[in-house]
Amino acid sequence: MHRRTCLLALAGLPLPRILAAVEPSAGSNGAETDSKVAFDAVLPGRVLRFPDDEGAHPGFRTEWWYVTGWLKGTEGDPFGFQITFFRVRTGIGEDNPSAFAPRQLLLAHAAIADPRLGRLRHDQRAARTGFERAGYATDRAHVRLDDWSFEQMDDHYVTRVNAEDFAYDLRLAFTGPPMFNGDQGFSRKAPDPYHASYYYSRPQLQVDGQVTLDGRRQAVSGRAWMDHEWSSAYSPEGADGWDWVGLNLDDGGALMAFRMRRPDGTALWASATRRFSDGRTQSLGPEQVEWFPIRRWQSPRTGIEYPIEWDLRIGERRYRLQPLMDDQELDSRRSTGTIYWEGAMRLFEDEREIGRGYLEMTGYGNRIQVG
Amino acid sequence: MRLAWVFLGSLGRRRAATLLSFAAIVLGVALGMAVQAVNQAALAEFGRGLRTLAGAADLQVVGPRTGFDEALYARLAARPEVAQASPVLEVRTERIGTTDTLNILGLDLFAVGAVTPALLARPVEIDDRAERESRLTSLAEDSVFLSAAAQTALAVQPGDRLSVYAGSQPLELRVAGDLPGAAEDRRLAVMDIAAVQNHFDRIGRLTRIDLKLVEGLDVQAARAALEPLLPAGVWLEVPQAAEGQASNLSRAYRVNLTLLAAMALITGAFLVFSAQALSVVRRHTELAFLRAIGLARRQLFVWLLAEGALVGLLGAVVGVALGHGLAFGLLELLGGDLGAGFFSGLSPSLRFDPWASGLYVLLGVGAGVAGAWLPARDAADIAPAQALKASDDSALSQRRGHPRLGLALMLMSLPLCALPPIMELPLGGYLAIFGLLAGSILWLPMLASGFARILPLWGPVPVRLAAARLRAAPGMGAVAATGVLASVALVVAMAIMVNSLRDSVDVWLGQILPADLYLRAGRVQSGGVLDEALQARLADVPGVAHVEFTRHDSLRLVPGQPPVALLARPVSSDGRELPLVGSAHAVAEGETAIWISEALHDLQGWRPGDRVQLPLAGSEVSVRVTGIWRDYARQTGSLMLDLADYRRLTGDRSVQDAAIWLTPGADAFSVAEALKSAGGSGALEVTAPGEIRAISLRIFDRTFAVTYVLEAAAVIIGLAGVAASFAALAAARRREFGLLRHLGLTRGQIGGLLALEGSLAAGIGILGGLTVGGAIAWILIEVVNRQSFHWSMDLSVPWLSLLVFAGTLAGLASLAAVLAGRQAMRQDAVLAVREDW
């Protein structure tokens, strides 16, 4: 769900708005707008197959592999981490024989939410595919961009990031099968079924590895969440932001919820997926998912107010979301001009912590250039 | 301080002479300052542009003009030494329907940010376009991003369309935004590298890779590690190297101009000298009186020097101001290279450099002091008692110059000419010119008296008087002749040199352009090529008897040096169609022959018969130097080889130019039209050799426009010198004229006497100037040009122009003498005589 935010965020790097371009323009009909390029369409009924569908789907306009999680080192408090690889099919240079032809772009974004620092550390990369600098595999999850990579090996992922002021090298082991969101992986984004994606998650990944912070390398372990989603027509008209959450529950279950938000704060669409500790999965529709903001925090940098504590109603159950720290705003105005909030969260039910995960909120500041 | 009025005030009393000295120094300083300021501005601008382009790059991979294989980029980007590699493909193109050329940088926008952030493109939102479309603008195949200066130069704005040639095809681009980081006055165009490769038919090629090394890594160490990866003819350079190359390239031209300005300054010093010498003579009694009432010898000397210094200072200050004004005008008119073509595409802005300006002020003061030195010493040496009793000009008249020192200086010039260039500058040649000029001036009194001795003492009284005076007091004539000699020498030397070069270039153009028509793919240097199909179509055009194609490229033989031009065209085995210098060396069977330009011979030390390695198509090829040809077009060196050899060695079959011979009776105009339409879309440019020749000579004349200005200035200075000298002389000789009137000479006769003396003095100066100027011309041609620009030329003396010039100058000099003496002649004879008794 974080895709658009991150897309926007990364967009800045060298290509101010390329990422945003992933979205079909408002009022247009997505894939069909490009007269020359036919993007693959997301249709209901497709059965996702593994490991092939873990790999890239270059025929679609946009795709991402998105990992978030909580880590704990040998010392100190837990902290959050996030790594995302985006693939963008631009529709440009499809018949250009140049090895530089920008048919497919890769963008990566990594962050660390460290309570000791009190704010996010983050870094980003972007490149066109080719020249062995950036590329992806189509038969399994494997994307790389210079010395950043995310790769699937049998029953685990490996990811490496060398950012400006942090680095990590993590192994993320599967603890169960993938969790399909929506209708067996067909995830609608709006009342109109045209705006949809293929979307599955891998919750409860067991993390082990190394993190380097402030030049100090330490062994870490924790739990993470991986989203893989691809689409050619994602963001619906009439939504100018969204809220998304992905949580690993202490009992072995998992919870994903999102809503597309109208300018007035009401939901245009909402959806959730719940996996129980016994492995059963439940998919919930718009009327079964409700978000209630509880506490707001105003960024001293941007003046934007974010609801950072939430009550969630998923079906018959109510949860409370609380942030690891208040300031998890991602302010990349200097490089990209985009601002959003994305951070590590604790999940409570009846005043008891029952899980941890990540929350992403976009569109709260008017500076975010959406659609 | 009352003394200040006595001395410095005297400058005001002889306004004409002071003004002339002042003007000469103004001119010398102004010219020197202008050349300096213009070049400084151009170099600073060029350097800033290079730094923008190089950004944070620690090293740059450079190669031949046609570029190198892009696989090198992948290899270098993967190296641990390299933090970021930014590939660049630069093409030169031309806007359709205009002569505006545009260098387009094809860049990977994702790699640019870390290395050359100034080249980051910023898309500008355009209202009437779909939003989605505008977001991918940075990568779109028809998007071009222009710096503010380029937008101004091309008169376009974001959203406008821009049609350029891509090869021989038209290409429609859209100005999608600007380059906010680019320096304001830099004309830059940026596109996506994939689009440039595709549109300009350069798939797989790069012209440069900018490398940012990992932090803390030593550049030399990285260089040593990366160099083995490079194919032949591709080098690693630190970005500053290009700046140095540009500076070196224009240095010879700059130094030559500055030295011309220095000559104007020296002429100014002579003028100060002649004015001061005569003024001292006129003030003989006054100065003797000052000495008698207690002014120390030393003080008198210093005060007289101060007179010269004041003229120098005023002239220099005004000169520096005028120089900056002149520089501004020159920049507007001719551009940063004063028309020489070293810095095209720049719009430099002038900056005031206090150090350089201070230096030029000092030079002006120095010229004034130097001019005043000898007269001041003479004046300080006089014995007051004797001078008070018999006020006359004997001291000056008796000066015989320093013939021995003069001879020594002139002889010294000979070995100086044989010196090799020092720091790539012909310093020996310049010293030799200085020696010749100074020596001949020291010799001038001797020459004058020798000349007078052979003059017959007969004819009308004024003639005999004039001859007698010259014979008895050659120093007088010498003073007047000094300025004439210096300026005539300068004019004659420049005239002979420029004439020789122009004639040689003219002949050379005839040799190098033997065909009836010339065709090229636009004015485009790297974009336009004629592919094989087009080559065949051109050869089949009716009326075409024979076609010869030329392939242009540039090679880098040595890192850190500018690239060398490569011309591949049909060349016969003995090179008879080339403008050869010396004889050709026979080539054995199976060897590849190359013909090198004189510059390459000088710079690389290659000689006919040498076996050398050429980096062609990424590998070293062994070739034989067969002969040396004259190339006035490419100062950094060029080499030619047979097109068939080139194609065999590189496999590259495209060409850029074609020389076309017509069948007898064919109409050149209609064939030209048929050739143009064979290329389609007006991308081919067909010209007749006459046109090329006219354009070339026009460029030549523009290049030498500055020297014409200097020549004119020198003539004016010379004439002014005559006028000043005679005005002072005539004033000093008032009582002599009075006596002559008493003895019965008419005013007309005295006027004739003055005119004759003027012509005689000028004649001596002109004769000396012609001789010395001829010698200086020889040094300019054989030493200075050869060492500065690496080209030879055939001596060609513009006899008629020189004759007319000499005659006019002599006539003008006598006129100046008469006009100057008119005041003295008008004076009442009785009064004039009585004044002194």
TrEMBL record, chain A:
Keywords: Signal. Residues 1-20 form the signal peptide. It comes from the Bacteria. Transmembrane segments: none annotated. Residues 62-232 form the AttH domain. InterPro entries: AttH-like_dom_sf, AttH_dom. This is Carotenoid 1,2-hydratase. It comes from Allochromatium humboldtianum.
Automatic annotation (TrEMBL), chain B:
It is found in: Cell membrane. Keywords: Cell membrane, Membrane, Transmembrane, Transmembrane helix. The chain crosses the membrane at residues 257-281, 302-335, 355-374, 405-423, 429-455, 476-498, 708-732, 753-779, 799-820. InterPro entries: ABC3_permease_C, MacB_PCD, Membrane_comp_ABC_pdt. It is a multi-pass membrane protein. Residues 259-380, 713-828 form the ABC3 transporter permease C-terminal domain. GO terms for cellular component: plasma membrane. Residues 18-228, 479-677 form the MacB-like periplasmic core domain. It comes from the Bacteria. The keyword Membrane applies. This is ABC transporter permease.
